[in-house]
Design brief:
Length: about 600
């Protein structure tokens, strides 16, 4: 590092965290002391950089600016209400009221950190401010002075026509850094060389654009001139991979080859291949991957997508689960028609693709009760079918009579195998009960008011969708009890098919380790909205509707995509829930609605 000076703001004589006597704090108030480092002096001295720094304190929830200071005018101790905050620091040229877009000398710095103020305590916060300029560096090869008359130059800037956003490199500026500030999205760095050829006095101009340049990176232009085969050729090399940089700008030289793939990028049916490519050496438009089973076979090619400068990826799909695949990087050197295969192939093994047990709903028994069948059989030869995975509300509805079953096998109407699961909504003496089937187990009845249900079963795979056969017959809602907003008697009933994956902590959601989500149908506060729930990582739902003019009383196959809100986590449980009346939790629906389900399959595409 060149000229590196570590600068510190000490808002107290000592920077150690301390506990002030409680009498110096107002009720519910704490204090902050601040330490800022990481800035290297340029045109300003270290003290000038610090004293002119702008410090802004925001509520951490982005609800607004709380305090704003110039450092030299900041009090030694900040007293703030106990809460979470974000502190932003701006220094150098950026801290000026009208900062220069282009500068030879003055760098700009930014830093940010979140912290929490605790009542009755003083918290010492350290923030490292990093350079936030786009940095240019132009050097002229000896060939430039050899073939061009004095006065040649290279203009670099964020604009082609605004001189205030440009720096002009002359021979005396060769190898010098220039600093640019940009607030735009993916700005370009434009360059233009102009000179007069010594041999004939002709003017020579060459220009170009470097798109999507990034703050905190250094772009190095190396200019050469060659006279070749009677033609005049001008060479420009853009090098943004140098690690000879100032301050906190850190570059890793681009080494062309396959880069690491995160374990979260490897699914049962696809994975994301990644690679680093030196764009100064290889054609960006020709980067591709090839893959095949590791056991052998023909290679299949997939074009790569440029994610950012030097970084490429490709989604490789249509794979078999629990299978090892080999893949390799294909590049083409600039100016060549010959492709190259970089390094030895890498390998990945796709994830498993488990299915829900008894997903055809073929296995039932009366092991749980003689009043209704359950979807498991302790005498089955398949261990997965010996214990309960699927459950319904039959335990509650049949307390009056076995004739009030709300879920049962239908051997007369099915799509696959020899039977389907039929979910039948009913009015059970004094209460409406929606036909239902779900992964989990029934809890208990709560008088005639409702009951408790435990949702979820252990599951750690990541399917991409759920597909199944459904048939639905419904009518107008004729049972109403605490309906949600917008639903009224006479509206046509609807069926609901849901699937969710998540990491629900049973201690928080009230359930048990196997079925972590406890829903009490008499307490709407226990209902879980999987579309917004923080512990849900993937969710999908299909609503089936019908009315007098649009009957859906026929079998159809539906596919419900899973929308992943977090692809960097694995689930711990799965919830699958079917209801013949989607407002059954509110004891509202049509007491003749019937939903048949069959041939459920989890997809891993």
């Amino acid at each position: 590092m060149k000229n590196r000076i570590f600068c510190v703001i000490a808002m107290l004589a000592a920077l150690t965290a301390c506990n002030k006597p409680s009498e110096n704090f107002s009720e519910g108030e704490g204090a902050l002391t601040l330490r800022i480092g990481g800035m290297t002096k340029a045109a300003m001295s270290s003290d000038e950089l610090l004293n002119s720094s702008l410090v802004k304190i925001y509520k951490a929830d982005f609800s607004g600016l709380v305090r704003s200071y110039v450092y030299s005018e900041m009090p030694a101790t900040l007293y703030l209400p106990a809460d979470s905050y974000r502190i932003d620091v701006a220094a150098g040229e950026l801290s000026k009221e009208t900062p220069a877009v282009a500068s030879w000398e003055q760098k700009s710095y930014r830093g940010s950190k979140e912290t929490t103020v605790v009542a009755g305590q003083t918290n010492s916060v350290s923030i490292e401010a990093k350079i936030c300029n786009i940095v240019s560096n132009v050097s002229f090869d000896a060939s430039i002075a050899e073939f061009f008359s004095e006065g040649f130059n290279c203009t670099v800037g964020l604009s082609t026509d605004d001189a205030s956003q440009q720096l002009v490199y002359s021979a005396a500026d060769s190898g010098k850094d220039g600093y640019f500030l940009s607030d735009g999205f993916e700005p370009s760095l434009y360059w233009s060389f102009s000179g007069t050829l010594s041999k004939n006095g002709e003017a020579f101009v060459k220009s170009g654009e470097i798109p999507a340049v990034e703050s905190g990176k250094r772009y190095k232009f190396s200019l050469q001139y060659n006279e070749k085969d009677g033609l005049l050729v001008f060479y420009l090399q853009v090098d943004d991979s140098t690690n000879d940089v100032y301050d906190n700008i850190i570059f890793v030289p681009v080494s062309t080859g396959i880069s690491a793939t995160s374990k979260f990028d490897i699914w049962a049916g696809h994975f994301t291949a990644r690679a680093d490519v030196d764009e100064g050496e290889y054609e960006a438009s020709s980067v591709a991957f090839e893959y095949r089973p590791a056991s052998g076979g023909d290679w299949t090619r997939v074009a790569a997508t440029r994610e950012s400068e030097g970084s490429y990826s490709a989604l490789i799909s249509g794979l078999a689960p629990q299978t090892e695949y080999a893949y390799r990087l294909v590049v083409k050197p600039s100016g060549s028609d010959v492709e190259e295969y970089m390094d030895a192939p890498s390998t990945v093994t796709t994830e498993a693709a488990p299915q829900a047990p008894n997903s055809g709903f073929e296995v039932t028994s009366n092991a749980e009760s003689n009043n209704y069948p359950s979807y498991y059989d302790p005498s089955s030869l398949d261990p997965e079918l010996q214990t309960k995975w699927w459950c319904s509300g039959n335990a509650g509805s049949t307390m009056v009579s076995s004739s009030y079953r709300i879920c049962y096998p239908d051997t007369g109407d099915y799509k696959e195998g020899s039977q389907s699961a039929c979910l039948s909504s009913r009015y059970v003496v004094v209460k409406f009960a929606a036909g239902n089937l779900f992964s989990g187990h029934f809890g208990k009845t709560i008088g005639t008011s409702g009951g408790t249900v435990y949702f979820g079963r252990p599951f750690t795979a990541r399917p991409t969708a759920m597909r199944l056969w459904v048939k639905y017959s419904s009518g107008p809602i004729n049972r109403v009890d605490g309906t949600p907003a917008g639903v009224q008697k006479g509206d046509y009933d609807k069926a609901s098919l849901k699937i969710a994956l998540g990491n629900w902590d049973y201690k928080k959601y009230g359930g048990d380790p196997d079925s972590p989500i406890l829903v009490n149908t008499t307490e709407t506060s226990t209902f879980v909205d999987f579309s917004t729930d923080a512990s849900t990582i993937a969710y999908g739902e299909e609503i089936i509707t019908s009315d007098a003019d649009n009957s859906t009383n026929v079998w159809k196959q539906v596919t419900i995509p899973l929308n992943y809100t977090n692809t960097a986590k694995y689930p711990s449980h799965i919830v699958i829930s079917f209801a013949a009346s989607m407002y059954g939790d509110y004891f509202t629906g049509c007491d003749s609605s019937m939903l048949w389900v069959d041939g459920l399959e989890l997809l891993y595409e």
